[in-house]
Amino acid sequence: MPWKEFNTVDLRFQFVLDSFQTGVNFTQLCAQYSISTKCGYKWKERFLREGKEGLLDKKKTPKNSPAKIAEETILEIIKIKNNRKFWGTKKTLQLTRLNSLIAKFLTDIQLSAFLRKRD
Fold it and tell me: Which parts of the sequence belong to the DNA-binding domain (predicted)?
């Protein structure tokens, strides 16, 4: 006998339909589907707002990243580091007048000299 395959969206849809039936205890229904009540209310609310499309998984990445460095800034930093190869992160930061994210960026792309760790 083969395993039953379930589509996540179909299970969520079935859960929402079961939750609209009269006389159903919502907490017990959530326990039957092995989800929290918070998650159950979320799916029910999404279904009411967006229909079956609301039951699809949403992206978990933020819409914008406040810590992201602009591409023009990155190009400027690379240009400075290529012209002044012996400058460290400190001088580059002073010249560009930007925050410490640049230090992380320079270390990531290996344009900054690494500090020797103490023994």
Answer: 26-74
